[in-house]
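Quick check before the chapter quiz. The format below is the same one you will see on the exam, so make sure you can read both the input and the output lines.
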Amino acid sequence: MLTVYDHLPEGLLDLPAQRLGEVLPGPALIHLPGRREPPLFVSVLLHGNEDAGWEAARAVLRKHRGAPLPRALSLFVGNVSAAGAGLRRLDGQVDYNRVWPGGAEADLPEHAMTREVVGAMRARRVFASIDVHNNTGLNPHYACVNRLDAAFLQLATLFSRIVVHFTRPLGVQSAAFAEFCPAVTVECGKPGVTRGVAHAADYIEACLHLSELPRARVAPHDIDLYHTVATVKVAAGVSFGFGCGDCDIDFAPDLDHMNFRELEPGAVLGRIGGAAPPCLHATDAAGADVTGRLFDFSGGRIRLRRRLMPAMLTLDERVVRQDCLCYLMERLPYPETGEAG
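Here is the expected output.
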């Protein structure tokens, strides 16, 4: 499934994400030389409807057209077919950000593809890894890391002072690369917003110009650190909507306005119609069911039992079904030590 290039294919930079299939037969790993080695790794379009990463990489490469990059770059372009349809993934496809080493292995072409990418970049002793995403709800721009080492946090805060530490879901790109280099996922707001593309492009450009990653501890006043407490999904077979009235779960029509707001115990996320509770399922970082510890379903309402902050709440029903309703987070005490291990 993977095509590897040592140059930019002709005409690639002229195409938006939806038309990449005109040049790329599928997922592609593109190695480009630069004045410094080892390369920066950037992955884009792991979800086909999240095009900020491609547009940012496209802008950076156009800027340096005809001149060497400040640092070598290895660009992975993911779900080209889903990008052509403007979808996160096509029906019948696996999620391209759940098939990386470290997740549930299966004998699928996508798993073999990601193993090939990881093997190639490990051999190149990659400098750092950046995975660029959009999200469908109202969220600030923020960075996510799988480790709290200083180099990871330095890489993250170069993008945003808001940093989320997570260990679930498994099989994500950043966790696979965290085994051998500093790795970060950056969330650039909704697709199609110029500010998100510009922010991602500036970030990639800045990372290409780094001679090394700082190993000093990030100053506590320069970071707002959170960690994921649970992943929340709507139970299978339960209908839901946002201000729909006649669904099993009727969420607020502006539910995504709760993102990155610290909600007090008793905060209401929705009302229950015909569904018997629990109509949501929450799992913690170990995969254990923590629904009853986090939610109160009494009185026909879905309430939080403790102070928590949602992220990635979305009004896109397809995304909720394919991924999750949201992640619930809480503030994480800043680590006393932060030296890279």
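If your answer matched, good. The helical segments are 52-63, 80-85, 109-123, 150-157, 173-177, 194-209, 291-294, 317-322.
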